[in-house]
Write a structure and sequence with these properties.
182 residues; 2 domains; 6 helices; globular
């Protein structure tokens, strides 16, 4: 194959010299994905800021807590990611269960509803969902509606710590087993 713009596709039969090459095509798609995804994310953030300006929602001091809420969300994702990575390496069917877990988790978190709908005596159990306090914290910091997620946030913080430490310990424990299985 010559260098330059001539690319080939090998589909099991004779190569086609006038279309994008298989290896190069995937490289081009991966490169475009790296370029387009941050652009979409930036535009999404920009549209949220425009909406806040349009609806005249000034940011309050609570916005300063957003990095903390974001850190808890990232630590939760890391913890569950470690659990699922180790489980997926041992049990290959775990990847088929993950979409169902994500959908269930979305309904178990206050994404489409407020946590104030949960009765007070069950709120601490609800707060064990690591994302419940984080989502309510984001909602409170951005819209300044409702009360600060004090006890819910504390329970979610404990949930985040449990998930993260459990994920780290389980991943480290399974590391040698996974190397033997793979």
């Amino acid at each position: 194959m010559q260098s330059g713009m001539q690319l080939e596709v090998v589909d099991g039969s004779a190569p086609n010299k006038f279309s994008v090459g298989a290896e190069q095509g995937y490289a081009v798609m991966a490169t475009m994905k790296r370029v387009i995804e941050p652009e979409i994310e930036m535009n999404s953030n920009l549209s949220e800021r425009i909406k806040m300006v349009y609806y005249r929602i000034p940011p309050g001091r609570a916005v300063l807590l957003l990095p903390g809420f974001l850190l808890l969300a990232l630590l939760t994702a890391l913890g569950f990611g470690l659990w699922l990575a180790a489980l997926n390496a041992i049990y290959r069917d775990v990847r088929y269960v993950v979409p169902f877990l994500v959908q269930f988790w979305m309904f178990a978190s206050p994404v489409a509803y407020s946590s104030s709908m949960v009765p007070g005596r069950w709120r601490w159990v609800y707060g064990l969902n690591p994302m419940a306090g984080v989502i309510e914290g984001f909602r409170w910091a951005l819209t300044r509606q409702g009360l600060a997620p004090g006890s819910l946030f504390a329970a979610s913080g404990c949930g985040v710590i449990l998930v993260l430490l459990g994920g780290v310990f389980y991943f480290r424990r399974m590391e040698g087993t996974v190397a033997d299985l793979v």
